[in-house]
């Protein structure tokens, strides 16, 4: 099965690009977000291909005034991975690793064109590998890049100018649960448990990145923090696996009321305080819910979904995975404090003893 990708020197196996190994959960995904620097408006986009499921899907969510307006699209992939479009949502790689553009042809009251330009060379996060008993649960790589965003969005006739916005994009590929869940349990896998925090933050002249996956006792199995000045190249910035995030939860929930990130450095510890000011429900771009990533919806299906992201049930399983739009303060010994904005992504499933859940 030859496709357009076979004319590019990008093969990783002896097979045509249409085939991605043998695991049905292989995926290849784009993610974007961008936000006004006062946190008043926010957009997120996800686009994924699932070669073994022969499905591609795309999602956009726009958050403003406590409402999250989402557009979902899914189609049969047709084994052609180089067509980065699903229905009205398309991605254009203008300059690899530097500039990408998302366009949404007007559908169900949602439209837009937003260009994402990297502030520095992307960082490569440590490879994520995790098993549930004998079965591979995750095995993937992700690049992450903070961006400056420009363009426009439109929701129900209201035009939103994307000017002076910042945000983050990432690309990840590998294995994680996609499509219909496996109905057969895995003996010996133990109780379901997953703890995840991810905080890419934009400051005036630099970016700060932090993520952690940890077990139920709080022991990290994948973590890193990076401080990256604008314009840094592939080897730039400060990287450490010794950073920690102190989190205070909203009582009775698994969402953070605040966070303090501590990054050890030679001159003393840098700290970043995070103050959530708004919520983006990740199911609005396919992280769970009816439009979960890789779900088969037929030859082509497009639908709108509106969510209340100001007044929602924080204990509902479908609402546990969020990005909290946050005001942030960076304090580095010997330097003036900087104010910035970023997201505090959170997902806590099962027990996590350090926070009493």
| Uncertain residue ranges | none
Distance between the termini: 49 Å
Which structural class do the helices and strands define? mainly beta
How many β-strand stretches?
23
Mean pLDDT: 96
> Number of helical segments?
0
CATH superfamily: AttH-like domain
List the helices and strands in order: EEEEEEEEEEEEEEEEEEEEEEE
CATH class bucket: Mainly Beta
Report the radius of gyration as a whole number of Å.
Answer: 20 Å
Count of individual domains: 1
The level of helicity is: under 10%
At CATH level 3, the topology is: AttH-like fold
SSE blueprint:
Layout: E1 26-35, E2 41-50, E3 55-64, E4 67-76, E5 85-86, E6 89-95, E7 99-107, E8 110-118, E9 123-124, E10 128-132, E11 135-155, E12 158-175, E13 194-198, E14 201-202, E15 206-214, E16 220-229, E17 238-240, E18 244-249, E19 256-263, E20 270-281, E21 300-308, E22 322-331, E23 338-349
């Amino acid at each position: 099965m030859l496709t357009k990708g076979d004319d590019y020197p990008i093969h990783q196996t002896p097979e045509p690009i249409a085939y991605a190994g043998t695991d049905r959960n292989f995926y290849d995904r784009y993610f974007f977000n961008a936000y006004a620097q006062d946190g008043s408006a926010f957009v997120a986009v996800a686009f994924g291909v699932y070669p073994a499921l022969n499905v591609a899907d795309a999602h956009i969510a726009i958050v403003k005034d406590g409402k999250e307006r989402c557009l979902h699209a899914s189609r049969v992939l047709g084994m052609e991975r180089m067509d980065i479009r699903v229905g009205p949502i398309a991605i254009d790689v203008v300059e690899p690793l530097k500039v990408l553009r998302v366009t949404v042809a007007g559908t169900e009251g949602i439209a837009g064109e937003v260009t994402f330009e990297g502030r520095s060379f992307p960082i490569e996060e440590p490879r994520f590998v995790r098993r549930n008993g004998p079965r591979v649960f995750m095995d993937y790589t992700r690049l992450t890049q903070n961006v400056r965003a420009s363009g426009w969005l439109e929701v129900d006739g209201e035009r939103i100018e994307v000017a002076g916005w910042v945000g983050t994009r990432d690309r990840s590929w590998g294995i994680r649960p996609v499509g219909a869940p496996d109905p057969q349990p895995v003996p010996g896998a133990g109780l379901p448990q997953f703890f995840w925090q991810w905080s890419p933050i934009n400051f005036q002249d630099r970016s700060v990145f932090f993520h952690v996956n940890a077990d139920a006792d709080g022991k990290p199995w994948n973590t890193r923090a990076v401080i990256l000045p604008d314009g840094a190249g592939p080897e730039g910035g400060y990287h450490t696996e010794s950073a920690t995030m102190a989190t205070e939860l909203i009582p009775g929930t698994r969402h953070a009321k605040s966070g303090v990130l501590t990054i050890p450095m030679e001159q003393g510890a840098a700290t970043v305080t995070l103050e959530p000011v708004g919520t983006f429900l990740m199911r609005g771009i396919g992280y769970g819910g009816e439009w979960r990533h890789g779900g088969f919806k037929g030859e082509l299906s497009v639908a709108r979904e509106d969510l209340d992201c100001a007044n929602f049930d924080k204990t509902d399983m479908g609402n546990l995975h969020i990005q909290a739009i946050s005001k942030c303060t960076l304090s580095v010994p010997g330097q003036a404090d900087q104010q910035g904005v970023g997201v505090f992504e959170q997902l806590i499933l099962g027990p996590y003893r350090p926070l009493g859940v």
